[in-house]
Amino acid sequence: MFPKISLITFSLVAVALGQQIGTNQAETHPKLTWQTCTGTGSCQANSNGAVVLDANWRWTHNVGGFTNCYTGNTWDNTLCPDGETCATNCAVDGADYAGTYGITTSGNALTLKFVTFAQQKNIGSRVYLMADDTHYESFQLLNKEFTFDVDLSQLPCGINGALYFSEMDADGGVSRFPANKAGAKYGTGYCDSQCPRDIKFINGVANSEGWVPSPSDPNAGTGNTGSCCNEMDVWEANSVSAAFTPHPCSVDGQTSCTGEDCAIQSRFDGLCDPDGCDFNSFRMGVQDFYGKGMTVDTSSKFTVVTQFVTNNNSTSGTLSEIRRIYVQNGRVIQNSKVNIPGMQPFDSVTTDFCTSQKTTFGDTNSFQQHGGLANMSKAMAKGMVLVMSIWDDHAAQMLWLDSDYPIGADATKPGVARGTCAQSSGDPVTVEGQTPNAQVVFSNIRFGSIGSTFTA
């Protein structure tokens, strides 16, 4: 994802809330059916599918007790004098998915609510698709097609309903890092192209050392260590704007970082490409394609198809193009074409598109510097984990998705305008206060050979 995500982390008040989702709270993964397709009309249901909540949202407390290891946005210095001791002393707990986090499933549909009011307020969530109770589903995407339905009619400016792939370990990291006892069952092992340093446990060790509480987010902070990996943003969107974006890294698989490898001082000095090569129809000059009442009408549900085309049209090839198709009300809608002076009418993500975009917009070509589609291809061949989330943005207020960005830039300059939202619209306090009932619904997930998951 483009900015560094401000993850919401819980600290539950001792015994009272511990009884709600404490050590007696069993971890039961909500079921979510999805389909594998081999040809049009030939799809088989994966009825054993389920989702798991990311570990960063969970209550972290002393082993066998109810004392918080993490309260608000700070660690307990007694339980956590250093990262290894903290990991020995502290545990993550089971989750009340619906009651505390606003996460529900029904058949093939997953609903993620933005704000949930229980005994305390929860903001957003992030979940992963499971293969079984202790492993994430791993998707090998080369020369394949990934399709889902989405309803984001209740998702306004400043909020992101995201669906993407991360090069995480399928077991959550337990085989590589024996100190990690929780594993995929409890949503561990997250990484992305921002090399996020707000992850509470990385490689089985608490990220408590050097932890600095966030000045704007009462639940988050950053430690000395980040967690990096290749990321394919299939869908970052609200009802106003949408983008799909590959983010390559120069490392293979989930990799921890410290210092400038995490791009602390300079955005482009890290192990991964933070900006990616994005295709946002509005940013690419077509301002009437996506939105309420437009060609892709976000006031109702629609289907998103993404095709990962290789140079030899086989699963053994190298990723050469990422194509997008929409289906709504029985009508197949081809992706919009670039309408920017000086650029060809591209309608997909290719190396030529990315190079042309970076040159025309005057952006640093960090995408190619980190290996471009070739490095993304390696991650897809190995397998990537499906992530679905809803979140607001304490780092850049989601302006990079749905408004004019960077702040202060001339909105008439190519690449600056990304949507119609006001630059004041993404303030988290405002968004959380004014639109707590926002939600996104992902449903009818299908995966298979190109052309097999939808009807033209």
TrEMBL record:
CDD domains listed in its UniProt record: GH7_CBH_EG (cd07999)
Keyword list, A-Z: Carbohydrate metabolism, Cellulose degradation, Glycosidase, Hydrolase, Polysaccharide degradation, Signal
Identification of the protein by name: Glucanase
Membrane found in the keyword field: no
Superkingdom, taxonomy of origin: Eukaryota
Pfam families, per database record: Glyco_hydro_7
Catalytic activity: Hydrolysis of (1->4)-beta-D-glucosidic linkages in cellulose and cellotetraose, releasing cellobiose from the non-reducing ends of the chains
Family indicated by similarity: Belongs to the glycosyl hydrolase 7 (cellulase C) family.
Segment forming the signal sequence: 1-18
GO biological process entries: cellulose catabolic process
Broad enzyme group: hydrolase
TM annotation in the entry: none
A molecular-function term among this protein's GO annotations: cellulose 1,4-beta-cellobiosidase activity
Keyword Signal attached: yes
Enzyme Commission identifier(s): 3.2.1.-
